[in-house]
């Protein structure tokens, strides 16, 4: 199955941050798609909830030095 989740990210200051976070997310087992936007500070992931949860996704982003929280 697939869930879609949106999250806010703070700490992104240049375009390379976007590529970095997208790469980190796509490396996580269970994440199928990841899109991050610098201008809006928003991100969206498609993930398999049987393989990964929002908590692990947030932790991966925060381990890279950013703050993240899911909208719902
Ligand atoms: Mo730009 Mo982001 O030099 O982690 S890559 S600030």
Short account of what is shown:
The chain has 72 residues and is an alpha+beta fold. It has 2 helices and 4 strands; from the N terminus they run βαββαβ. The chain binds dioxo(di-mu-sulfide)dimolybdenum.
Q: What is the number of helices?
A: 2
> Spans with pLDDT under 50 lasting ≥5 residues?
none
CATH class: Alpha Beta
Total strands = 4
Q: Order the strands across the largest sheet as they lie in space.
A: 2-3-1-4
Structural class: alpha+beta
CA radius of gyration: 11 Å
What small molecules are bound in this structure? dioxo(di-mu-sulfide)dimolybdenum
Indicate the CATH architecture: 2-Layer Sandwich
Task: Write down the overall mean pLDDT.
Answer: 97
Q: What fraction strand?
A: 25-35%
**Outline type:** globular
State the end-to-end CA separation: 19 Å
- Under CATH, the topology is which? Alpha-Beta Plaits
